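Study this fold:
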Amino acid sequence: MFTHQHFRIAGSGTYFPKEILTAEQIDQLIGKPSGWTKKHVGVLRRYRCQSPETIGTMAKVAVTKALQDAGMHWADIDLIIDCSTS
């Protein structure tokens, strides 16, 4: 027997680290010639988390934005689904 779960996405929020690395900067960091990252990986830029940012502080900002988007408060949360990469 299947149990059906009923839920809805009430809001969403995002946060990106403040530091942006260009493909050329990534090339330098990994010791590849200029243009390698763009050509082989297709990356033009990436965000990098630097202190004092942490995964936790970034998550708090994203959740706060999601709550504002939903018109809700922290006490209203039953479940958080995290779809992040780090």
Observations:
- The CA atoms of residues 14 and 83 lie 10 Å apart.
- The radius of gyration is 18 Å.
